[in-house]
Design brief:
This protein is an alpha+beta fold and 221 residues long. It has one domain. Helices cover 31% and strands 31% of the residues. The chain contains eight helices and nine strands. The strands form two sheets. Strands 1, 2, 5, 6, 7, 8 and 9 form a seven-stranded antiparallel β-sheet that branches. The chain is extended, with a radius of gyration of 21 Å. The protein starts with a helix and ends with a helix.
Length: 221
């Protein structure tokens, strides 16, 4: 039976326990197809468009799960389950809304590229894009990254307006579907020496976003 010292030793060896409030969501529009950028800019969403704000305004995001699907195979009197595929769960992201409804307007424009007001369905390469969810440690440094491949929003939740909720901050929850995801450890040495654009293959703008997120997290520690 494990004793308290064994538990403490293992947690210490692994860098402490993980905190759910230290993370970073990256939606790197810098490499997004021009059709989506054009749709957003043409709507004149807000005077100051900065897609780094999507990560800063993200209140919560889940690392998606994966379920292996099986079929029964009979080799005798009883079935044996054999894997035949997998199912990924959607990603749910909750954003804090600002008075200009910036996030809501961006997501509305994104949906308009998928299916517009004339019921014309867009091409997937025009609206699907990779997202990044990064887990930060207690020092605000990236320790685990998930790349979500070809993601796009499929559900924008209701936003409640209520006269009795005078001091309540409005939130927006968006569900994303995607093709698949992969995970790998970030090269911290490359990041600290300016090589993060090679890690995420999204250029200096993403590098700046990560650094901005790290600085934000550090200020909260």
């Amino acid at each position: 039976m494990l004793n308290l010292e064994d538990i403490k030793s293992t947690i210490s060896k692994r860098g402490g326990v993980a905190s759910s409030n230290k993370f970073l969501l990256i939606i790197p529009f810098v490499n997004l197809n021009l059709n989506l950028n054009a749709a957003i800019f043409n709507k004149n969403i807000v005077p100051d468009i900065d897609f780094r704000d999507l990560g800063i305004l993200c209140e919560s995001v889940n690392f998606p799960g994966k379920q292996i699907t099986t079929v029964d195979r009979f080799t005798g009197a009883y079935p044996i389950k054999i894997a035949n595929g997998f199912v990924n769960t959607d990603i749910n992201v909750t954003f804090t809304l600002t008075n200009d409804y910036y996030v809501k307007r961006v997501m509305d424009a994104w949906l308009d590229v998928i299916i517009n007001s004339s019921n014309e369905i867009g091409y997937k390469e025009d609206y699907a894009k990779d997202l990044y969810i990064i887990k930060l440690n207690e020092r605000g440094l990236p320790m685990y990254q998930m790349r979500v491949k070809s993601a796009y929003p499929v559900t924008i939740a209701d936003i409640e307006n209520n006269t009795s909720s005078r001091n309540e901050i409005q939130k927006l929850t968006v569900s994303f579907t995607y093709d698949d995801y992969d995970t790998y450890e970030l090269d911290l040495k490359s990041m600290l020496t300016g090589g993060v654009e090679n890690i995420l293959t999204n250029g200096p703008s993403v590098k700046g976003l990560i650094q901005s997120g790290i600085n934000t997290v550090k200020s909260l520690i």
